[in-house]
Specification:
By secondary structure, this protein is of the alpha/beta class. The radius of gyration is 18 Å and the shape is globular. About 30% of the residues lie in helices and about 35% in strands. A hairpin with a 5-residue loop joins strand 11 (about 195) and strand 12 (about 205). It has six helices and twelve strands.
Length: about 220
């Protein structure tokens, strides 16, 4: 796997991540969503540099000009519900992308009385991904099991020509886990990698539950 940890570079991206982590700024859910969206825009721009391009001629009021534009067919897959703001950010830069949506959640054993869980996929709506550039967006890469199950579900829709994973914050164990799941030429774009998970498999220090912070606490 090719890992692009953009948080190791000095850029405005780190300001957005800082605000996402800040327990006071988090109280503004609209700003939280917008910061994730802006991170998606930064990531989308970076991903665009790896695509295949073609030359297209454009007519201007004063003449013509040849411009290099992407020719890759992109499918953007979001993991509901936390992935929606990140999805929108990437989509802002890929106007012609097809879109896929998958529902995955943690199913805790013993009615939630212990910390063991499995990730269950309940819903998938996707076009064919055969020979296309697949971009999977998931803001929190904790254990990596959600991405694993998403990838398995998408296999029924074809084999992508190229795979990109876009995340905001990941854990070192989660990143190591998906390295064994995805093809070697998969690109991971991430804004920060934290060292550990707690006993409930949340990233430490992380930022909390991205879905709840974006859309409100669920039952």
């Amino acid at each position: 796997m090719i890992i692009h940890n953009l948080g190791l570079e000095n850029s405005i991206l780190n300001q957005f991540v800082l605000e996402l982590r800040d327990i006071e700024i988090q109280k503004d859910s609209m700003r939280f969503r917008r910061n994730i969206e802006r991170i998606g825009e930064v990531m989308g721009y970076e991903v665009s540099k790896t695509l295949e391009y073609k030359t297209k001629r454009v007519n201007t009021p004063l003449g013509t000009k040849e411009v290099s534009v992407p020719k890759s067919k992109v499918v953007l897959c979001s993991i509901l519900r936390a992935g929606l703001p990140l999805h929108q950010g990437v989509l802002n830069y890929f106007d012609k992308a097809e879109n896929a949506f998958i529902s995955a959640y943690r199913d805790h054993k013993n009615d939630g009385k212990d910390d063991d869980f499995e990730v269950v996929v309940k819903y998938l709506a996707s076009p064919s991904v055969q020979d296309k550039t697949l971009i999977i967006v998931d803001p929190m890469l904790a254990t990596g099991k959600t991405l694993e199950n998403t990838f398995r579900a998408l296999k029924e829709h074809g084999t992508p020509g190229q795979i990109h994973i876009v995340s905001v914050i990941g854990s070192e164990p989660g990143v190591e886990y998906i390295e064994d799941i995805f093809p070697e030429n998969t690109h991971l774009w991430i804004a920060a990698v934290d060292k550990e998970l707690n006993n409930k498999s949340y990233i430490i220090p992380g930022l909390g539950d991205a879905g709840d912070l974006s859309f409100g606490i669920k039952l």
